[in-house]
Amino acid sequence: MMNRRRILTLAGATGASTLAMPFVRPSWAQSGAVRVGLLLPYSGTYAALGEAITNAMQLYVTQQGGKLGGRAIEFVKVDDESAPPKATENTTKLVSGEKVDVLCGTVHSGVAMAMAKIARENGLPTLIPNAGAEAITRAMCAPNIFRTSFGNSQVGDATGMAMLKAGVKKAVTVTWKYSAGAESVDGFKKSFLKGGGEVIKDITLPFPDVEFQSILAEVASLKPDAVYSFFAGGGALKFMKDYHAAKLNEKVALWGAGFLTDGVEKAAGPAGDGVKTALHYVDSLDNAENKKFIADYTAAFKKAPDVYAVQGWDSMQLLRVGLEAVGGDVTKRKDMFPAMAKAEFKSPRGPFKLGTSHNPIQNFYLRELRGGENKYLGVAAEMLADDTTGCKMA
Amino acid sequence: MSANPLLEARGIDAFYGASHVLRGVDFHVGRGETVSLLGRNGMGKTTLLRTLMGLVPARGGDIRFDGEDIKGRRPSAVARAGVGFVPEGRGIFPNLSVEENLIFAEREGPDGRRDWTRGAIYQLFPRLLERRANWGNQLSGGEQQMLTIGRALMSNPTLLMVDEATEGLAPMVRDDIWRTLRLIAERGVAIVVVDKNLDDLKKLCRRHVILVKGEVVFDGPTEELSARDDFVRSQLGL
Amino acid sequence: MSLILVQILNGLQYGLLLFLAASGLTLVFGILGVINLAHGSFYMIGAYMALTLTSYTGDIFLALAAGIPLAFLVGMAIEWLFVRHLYKRDHLQQVLLTFALILVFNEAQQSIWGNYPKSIPMPSYLSSSISLTTDLGYSVYRLALMAICVGLALLMMFVIQKTRVGRLIRAAESNPEMVEALGFDSRVLFRVVFAAGAALAAAAGMLAAPVESAYPGIGERVLIISFVVVVIGGIGSIRGAFLGSLLIGLADAFGKVFVPKFSSVLIYALMALVLVLRPNGLFGRS
Known about the structure:
The complex is a heterotrimer of chains A (394), B (238) and C (286). With 394 residues, chain A is an alpha/beta fold. Chain A folds into two domains: 222 residues, Rossmann fold (3-Layer(aba) Sandwich), CATH 3.40.50; 148 residues, Response regulator (Rossmann fold), CATH 3.40.50.2300. Chain A contains twelve helices and 15 strands. In chain A, the strands form two sheets. In chain A, strands 7, 8, 9, 10, 11, 12, 13, 14 and 15 form a nine-stranded mixed sheet that branches. Chain A has a six-stranded mixed sheet with strand order 2-3-1-4-5-6, sandwiched between helices. The radius of gyration of chain A is 20 Å and the shape is globular. The two termini of chain A are 39 Å apart. By secondary structure, chain B is α/β, with parallel strands linked by helices. In chain B, the strands form two sheets. A six-stranded mixed sheet of chain B has the order 6-7-8-3-9-10, with helices on both faces. In chain B, strands 2-1-4-5 form a four-stranded antiparallel sheet, covered by helices on one side. Chain C has a single domain, classed as ABC transporter involved in vitamin B12 uptake, BtuC (Orthogonal Bundle). In chain C, helix 1 packs antiparallel against helix 10, helix 2 runs parallel beside helix 4 and helix 3 runs antiparallel to helix 8. The interface between B and C is medium-sized, with 23 and 18 residues.
């Protein structure tokens, strides 16, 4: 079953990418290329995220002439299906089977944890373009593992600050019962409680359940000032629509980590109006990198990029820094990793640099969804770093 | 053999998995004729009926019904050609009422006749009329047997194949079934019946066929069956 | 309105929708004896058909009128191409083939509709919300959805109990060979039943689409919960599927609010309990 799944995925993915990206050649064609293994979701709830990340990475490499640090780049894709039970097998397939030089993944935190465990052991250069699992840049941090996205609690932390500033006193949290949700809520509480806010209740539902009606009724009965939520993808869309249909938005402001609205701005329609979120990106950011990024991405893929695309883009920027430092020789890890750790570059999201645990230090922006667009309302937290609790770089 | 038989099977071979159950069986039934099919358990009687019905594929040979080649046809096509089937173990629909079981099979015969209506069946089996609203699985064994026969008749068949209709029934109920089968035969329906009660079969059927290990060892009229009593008894293990 | 009454409403609404999806699965399982893992895919296809057809017709109910026959035809085609070869095979082979169908359907969905969640508009005349409490509204569309589901459930029970097709279905469920021996071509019956199952799942997907939206993986979620319904209700039983769906809907709604720690396992615990007390499900026959 696994093989079949993968063949289908590769066939579909390479079919699509060879059309759009002539430089991506099948793996047998090159021997001198740096092989970048992509462990990403190409099916299921997070398929859109995997697609956006992959698109941006391919776009970046194409713009660099197909090469980073003088070496051609070749992508090898495996669909991780956002399935933690299959994560070890899928990672091993890339590492041992495909013998990739660089590992890159993924979206789902549970899958990323299993991948990071293997990466720690074999020391392969590893880029994490989304999953915000805290342990990856805390207790499990390693010299070879770099995150270009966010820590789950970092986003919650920033959102909590923005909610306090907006005058929210009593909040209820709602999320899926899985580690990303719990960490996001922890981050939110870190700033919100410290600033004098009160959390009346933490509500969870099983991942990826989207039957929200009963918990919406509960929220209504609790009468908070606002809801802090952490959802993404189809679940996020449904949550906003159900929230609106339940008329909760009239009395209880809906807030969330920015993933709530990203990718579903248009789909949410009027149901999304007034939903406020904080995130390390908003597409209306006024900087040159962002404008060029949006224009190029839209031209290549006939759709606008999102935060996931930005993270994929920056993972290639970071890889470029590493490869340039060693002239494309991925075996010179002793020189490559410190160069990456010290990397500072301009990202569509604003300035990008890494903290001591290899998690980005970055701006978080306050946004409000209105008329199918995330409007930029200001900076929620400037150059915010995530906790590094428990991180000891070997 | 009559000149224009209703059912005519020649050289039938049939298998259950690897075991060769029917070995070149010749079998025929004339219009309106009543034929018994005899033999010990496991000799191929039920398999022969099921093969004729199309429920078991015939590997070799040739089956014609009413002049048409029906070998390889689906059971539903054989049924619509005019064969009514009363299987061993009865096969009523437990989750249909008695009336529904009957309506289920209702259709005009291959010759366009509709002799057997619900009314006619209820006349034949007054007991079924009393229990018409009951579910199939609420009936006694005898009632179930009546229902299966009645149901098969509802499709106005020209041939009725009855497998072990009296097995496990009380003597009085058995007599009822035999009496009914004779009534049905008198109305011109050809009948093939598998049973173990030689005496009752002799009263109903004019011709008898004995199967031993998938082959026909006897095919003759009642007089011949009676005349070769010792042979018959040894073949049937009586 | 108290929280308990609101949760009863929520549970019934979820359960009714679940019934539409699960009823097709139980029919196919009960009559054809096929474990159809691709059943959820028909739900997914329904959701995306709602997306495409409402963009042409402008109204979900017009889309439904076109989509149900379309799904029926898709079901007929799938039965003819693949499923009919499975009737005499063992369950492992059924699972393998229908799992492969899920992959094919998902791949097709991604290439046709893409990976981003899509919203399906509610008809404007049902898009408002009424107030249940001072703080809580309830979508009128959801109320309409409940009415439609109840209507369809009644219609289905009428068809099964009172019509010729229903007699055939019940008969085939208990003894398919005898149905054939009484002159009914079971190939036709099986194809129709499979297609009806597909159409029911697609109808559920379409009806739910305006509240549920359409996104990758939506079918798998429905598949798992539908199997739980079938096991609780008893394989092949429409009445069982109805009761099982409502039970699960209510357990889900109350579980999430009153025993949130156990809400993820509650419906499976319910299933286990039913299996202990009635191993063949509530309305299953041994």
